[in-house]
Amino acid sequence: MNIAVVGTGYVGLVTGTCFAETGNKVICVDIDEKKVERMKNGEIPIFEPGLDVLFERNTRQGRLSFTTKLDEAIEDAQIIFLALPTPPGEDGSADLSYILGVADKLSFLIKDYKVIVDKSTVPVGTSEKVHNILAKHLDEELFDVVSNPEFLREGVAVDDFMKPDRVVIGTSSSRARDVMKQLYEPFVRQGNPILFMDERSAEMTKYAANSYLATRITFMNEIANLCEKLEANVDMVRIGMGSDSRIGKRFLFPGVGFGGSCFPKDVQALMRTATESEYDFQILDAVLKVNTEQRRLLAKKIKTHFQDDLQGKTIAIWGLAFKPNTDDIREAPAMYIIDELLEAGAKIKAYDPEAMENVQKIYGDKIQFMDDQYEALIGADALAIVTEWTVFRTPSFKVMRELLKEPLVFDGRNLYDLERMQEQGFHYLSIGRNPVSVATSSKPA
Length: 445
Ligand code: UDX
Prior knowledge:
Blueprint (H helix, E strand, L loop, with lengths): L1 E5 L3 H12 L3 E5 L3 H8 L10 H10 L3 E4 L2 H6 L3 E4 L14 H13 L4 E5 L7 H12 L5 E5 L9 H6 L4 E4 L3 H11 L9 E4 L1 H32 L3 H9 L20 H14 L5 H24 L8 E5 L14 H11 L3 E5 L4 H8 L4 E2 L12 E4 L11 H7 L4 E4 L6 H6 L3 E3 L16
Parallel strand pairs: 1-2, 1-4, 2-3, 4-5, 5-6, 7-8, 9-10, 9-12, 10-11, 12-13, 13-14
Helix pairs in contact: 1-3, 5-6, 9-11, 9-12, 11-12, 12-13
């Protein structure tokens, strides 16, 4: 099939590349000329594991190309994906101006039947809005609007796209339904479902899924906070709970609060939708409040340890990205932690395998960026672990002890075993578990 993808952000680029991989001819269009030029030269604007191989193969074999011209991109396309940003406005509602603006342009360009697909996360009722804009200048026989939300996790987006748990298609048109079924069949060979539903339910499914997951994490964060007070170990509680098949083991890890480009934005947008519908969505209100607190928790622990005086102290930070395997720092808990530590007078030496360039754009020389995780520890008064990159999971504790001024670790991701940290002579504070005190001397030989 011929496909146009409008918007080459994270979702658009992964979507376009993966559709090319199953043999479709995909043209990605973006208004950003520099970005399009870079992509034409083989440069991928985002870090996403596995995308490079697919990108290279499909551009080389002519199935994936880039343009700034919307008319060229859609001319032969049977399907047009809208993968445009929906940033939160001041009131938390999703800003639809990009999507509706492109819909307006399309209404003048479309000449033969096309399926217009909303891939972006959009509030319930958006596909009707897109439909109405298109219908202003177009015969309704010439298009259908479909809602097809994405469920891609950054860091594993290619895998999620190629082997989705489910594909959600919201449409009331049987013609569009057939086109979408044909397009997605190669991705669900293992038997996972393509779920057809109405447009509004599809739009709601995305918000419900993300808000539920954000709630689940937040619930675990609160359980962890209570475990600390009750001297229970949240890791044990998590496994005990997760072994119930009704609960399941995944997505129960307490930490430094959820971040990223989706959860905070989507929870807020659903709250906003609820308010507009005069529904008081109480759980979501609590989720946002708790998450704001949880993002500060690690900084709070550090400040408490140093009696609120961080003047002259240096804190090493491992991990800046909002989660591992991405360079994305949108709503990253690390930023909130850094702000609070800087405000309390601390110096920061930070290391992240991929996200340092992005953080540097914001902080400049307000914090130090180190080339290596151990270099960040040299002369630091404590280490704070914020992102659970694999490379932090089995460090040399000996080297850590040698480099840190004191063997003091604040772990926001519960990476290490408590007994091990005790044996290794660390003062170790984590989330929802008892603090570990230095077992022997503070600097074993
Ligand atoms: C999420 C959804 O998972 C995805 O389906 C959707 O399309 C986009 O939003 P993503 O933002 O890439 O994906 O990250 P995800 O892996 O879901 O993690 C979100 C946040 O939750 C991160 O800050 C992560 O650290 C946190 N998290 C996740 C936890 O704190 N504990 C967990 O157990 C899982």
